[in-house]
Amino acid sequence: MGIMFALAGSLTANSLDKRPARQVVTSRMRRLLPPLWLLGLLAVPVMLATGWASQDDGDHPWSWKLALWILPIGDPPGSQAGIDAWEPLWYIRAYLWFVLLSPLLYLVYKKVGWFAVVAPVALMAVLDKTGFELPFGRADAAMWDFVTYGSCWIAGFAHHDGRLHRLHPRVAWLGAIGLGLVALYWLHGHPGEGGFDLNDVPESQALWSLAFVLVALRWEPDMTWLSYLRPVDRAVTLLNSRAVTIYLWHNIAIAAIWPVLTVLTLDDLGAGMEGPVELGMTVALTGVAVLAFGWVEDLAARRRARLWPASAESAAQARASAQAGTGGHAAEAAALTEPVQADGPEVTLVFRTVEPEVRHPASRRDVSDVTPGQRRSAQENYEEPMVSWFSDGDRR
């Protein structure tokens, strides 16, 4: 999880250096919230129709908390039956708070440097020592997610301005190893309800995530070769263009696997087939969600709505963006990660920061085939990305 917060922090800092803070914040909110609204427009009525109002415990639907589906400064409520729709939204809430606080955090970082990176971990130690809690459960959860992943977000600032790149590799590795060992030591002495699971122990999660970020963002392998593999290149384009949709809906897709197989009378699988079938069905059902709901990300980004963005036309648009000095691949959405904190693997691709001076075509064709109209359109409509799965380019 930490690496995706770090990526988002790096790209947010890049935007803050180029545009006023208000524009950066409002742009990211506009890109993030419409896919959530579409999910809520479908999920909330379904949860109400299936008995949400009559459930004995949990949040009651007819309260102010329902407005959190519109502006998720706290976790949006939901029914027990609809947990697969609303449980992943903790990440949307955490991301939104980081975006709102980024102008202040970036200002502090530019003043104190690495001290800002370690500040959230220090704050976590204070919370542990004092036992301080906020009066509302949702506010307390937001505070703990901030101190858990805040160091990763601010480490993204260090990645953006080159401070992390200038860190000696030995220092980065020793720091990462030290943080990782402390994280494992704390996990061993303070296991969560699920045993030795980092997601149940925020202290260990914070240290382990920061350790991984120090290594991953400091390493920065050259990935320009990816733009010459057209199928892979288009897959990355698709993932970047539909990252929020995939994040919001793939947990629902996982929950729908066996009901769908039962309806199709394909649920009687042989030994050893469950894993491959579940993986294939997850991809297939998530693909259906991308086709059905992904277009809202185009509208949120002020683009023409597309059914499937991984096309030759999309590659041409990527070349237009490269020619306009905006880089080739950049995701327009929040980080795509496993939605439930406690279960499942995290999915992360390798990345590099896009620099305007470097042009890399999205295919073997040169960007000279971009028309003036495409170039003007890319220049007029471009907005800084929020989170990137993959970007190509060299550090300045």
Report on the architecture of this protein:
The structure is a single chain. By secondary structure, the chain is mostly helical. The chain has two domains: 2-219, no CATH class; 225-381, no CATH class. It is built from 15 helices and no strands. Helix 1 packs across helix 6, helix 6 (137-161) packs parallel to helix 9 (202-219) and helix 8 (169-189) packs antiparallel against helix 9 (202-219). The longest helix has 29 residues, at 21-49. It starts with a helix and ends in a 15-residue tail after the last helix.
Kindly list the characteristics that best describe this protein:
single chain, 396 residues, mainly alpha, 2 domains, 15 helices, 60% helix
Structural class: mainly alpha
Helix percentage range? 55-70%
Whole-number mean pLDDT = 80
How many beta-strand elements?
0
Radius of gyration: 21 Å
Molecular shape: globular
- The parts where pLDDT drops under 50 for at least 5 residues are 321-370, 375-396
User: How far is the N terminus from the C terminus?
Assistant: 27 Å
Number of domains: 2
- Count, helices: 15
What is the chain-wise order of helices and strands?
Answer: HHHHHHHHHHHHHHH
Oligomer: single chain
The major sheet is characterized as: none
Task: Summarize the entry for a quick read.
The chain is mainly α.
Layout: helices, strands, pairs:
Elements: H1 2-18, H2 21-49, H3 83-86, H4 90-112, H5 114-130, H6 137-161, H7 163-166, H8 169-189, H9 202-219, H10 230-241, H11 243-263, H12 274-293, H13 295-300, H14 312-323, H15 372-381
